[in-house]
## 1
Amino acid sequence: MKQTITTFLFYCLALTLSTAQNRTLKLNGDVTTKDQVTIKGKVVPYNATAGNQPVYDENGKPIATLFYVYYERSDVADKSTRPLFISFNGGPGAASCWMHIGYTGPKKVNVDSEGYPLQPYGIKDNPNSILDVADIVYVEPVNTGFSRAVNDSIPKSKFFGVNADIKYLAEWLNVFVSRKNRWPSPKYLIGESYGTTRVSGLALELQNADWMYLNGVILVSPTDLGIERGGPVEAANFLPYYAATAWYHKKLPSDLQQKDLDAVLPEVEQFTINELAPALTKGGFMEADKKKQMAAKIARYSGLSEKVVLEHNLMIPTSFFWKELLRDKGYQIGRLDSRYLGIDREEAGDRPDYAAEYTSWQHSFTPAINYYLREVLKYKTDLKYYIAGQTRPWDRDGANADRTGANLRQAMAQNPYLHVMIQSGYYDGATDYFNAKFNMWHIDPSGKLKNRLEWKGYRGGHMMYLRDEDMVTSTDDIRAFIQKTLPKPDQPAKY
């Protein structure tokens, strides 16, 4: 860092409470540092603020404090046209560090060009950060990062549910935008994994409860967003991901393997939509010849044997696929990124012993984020940084039922400015790319909003941006999305 500015407290009140671990918990307070980064060949100076801001209940009483890191480009005086990106990770229970020092922030975790851990642990400049075109705040929900409830008596139901989460975060963002004087700015939400559920719901909640309207929402490796796809459709939809992964590991027949991935996947997608899903609707009444024909095609595209496909009645569970694809080579493959390999105690079994990719990512991210926040951004605390927080049980029933896909559609309908971009990695087996396309197709059954929806695919996994090649492409796609969604001066929001 070039210079450290003095630590200061919001307003004139310094509030501290004690957690169950007897470690100091700040309700308000922040520290700001100055730095610069070279992005796309140009020097970008910025201020980085690491701090806390309270969550208030309906009576205005603080019930939690959220940790955040806020980056502002310091050579831009007029913020009225400067986009503000509000970034969330998922889990629920995942810290914001993944996109913070993995994707869009000015510093990047030290990994190799494909995303694997390196030593010494730490960070380096991110020449692809989007800070050249937008300011960014990374928000840690309760029990992620350094964010906590003020004491153990606060009901967990205030925070740990699909819509409870959306409600308190919208209130928190209202205060944050007011404190930072960003109401005039164009605003964007970006979420990864369960963070896509979060931001899809926030798009409508911010409009309806806080009268805050957005220009864009970016869904990185999205969940199902509550969009129905059970039974035969759900089973069929995984095949394109299986094909992509089998292609990567060179398990497809030679005629397919010699083609580029972009040439293989459209063929598999068309088979999935036009043949496999309709065939699976017949279940046990499918004709024997038809079943054998379908099994042969599934085996051809998945890299599995026809025998195991038939043993599973044409519907291959993802956990079995991760165990089976490279069983003959003595490896299991990763769930969130199926390029990663693991070694199980036994080659037998129907699921991997552990998540090879997640272990690898924690290996590099946990030391890096702790070093960066404490030593570079000068945020001092003895609190443990929860890279994977304690947020269970997470309520998804009743008032917390997931309707976030429908909420996002409603937000788009109400706001003609609002556009959505989806980003997916082909080798992500948890939130696979074809189901992300399915989301896009089914968010708006009328088809009237489809010109404001787009999907982008990359040759990585859940965190596709860990690959250097995908980092360049995906951040450029964000820049293009911003450019497209910033209205011209005096362009009204109307149909």
## 2
Amino acid sequence: MSPDVEGAPRRQVATTALLIVAGVLVLFVPAGGEGRVLLPVSEGHGLSAVDAVGAALLAVGATWLEVLVVRRLPHLALPPRALFALGLLAGLGVGLLIASVFSGFFWWWAVGAAAIGVAVLVLVPLTARR
């Protein structure tokens, strides 16, 4: 393999991480600086133009990262039970994030984000390896 191809996973993971961080930073803009709500989701939740930009950056980065992880799964050498547990944890995290928008308990998003974070912290370094 050429040196350019060997460094590709690491560069791509770094690019996706930058997109994700940029999206999260845009989503952290205080509600007073976001402008009017374009699409109300539920009481207390709505999508503004700033939120749409942050969500788009986050979605592109996270989807690209997921594709990288799935394409490298055979090379990660994780046992089937570990892969199942990580997938279950990430799925539970996504479900809790989505449910937090529609439930009365606002802080479920933090539990969901922590669950996704654990799965990401395990899989991303393995994906970035050569």
